[in-house]
Amino acid sequence: MTTYQEYQAKIAELQNLAESARKEELSKAKEQIATIMREYGLSLADLAGVGKPAKTLKPRAPVPMKYRDEATGQTWTGRGRAPKWLEGKNKDDFLIK
């Protein structure tokens, strides 16, 4: 039967092997990238604009109020969960005209 310490030793050995394999793969990838860059005459500055352009966020326009409680002055746009002051009442009675 294998003990906990033996499993930990195997895990450490495998982690070392994985790390060395990763370093080797990174080294090969860097070499391939450098070869391609030399072949096409590219510099790091040429790669700066590569990728998807950033999305520009448009500011949202405020949603107009659709319902108003005349007694309290509270309003609601009609979006999302209905407010407590509107529970059990007909929404059409509170429409802003």
UniProtKB/TrEMBL annotation:
Coiled coil: none annotated. It is found in: Cytoplasm, Nucleoid. One of its GO terms (molecular function) is DNA binding. Residues 54-84 are annotated as: Disordered. InterPro entries: H-NS_C_dom. Residues 57-96 form the DNA-binding protein H-NS-like C-terminal domain. One of its GO terms (cellular component) is nucleoid. Its main location: cytoplasm. Keywords: Cytoplasm, DNA-binding. SMART domains: HNS. Belongs to the histone-like protein H-NS family. This is H-NS histone family protein. It comes from Pseudoduganella rivuli.
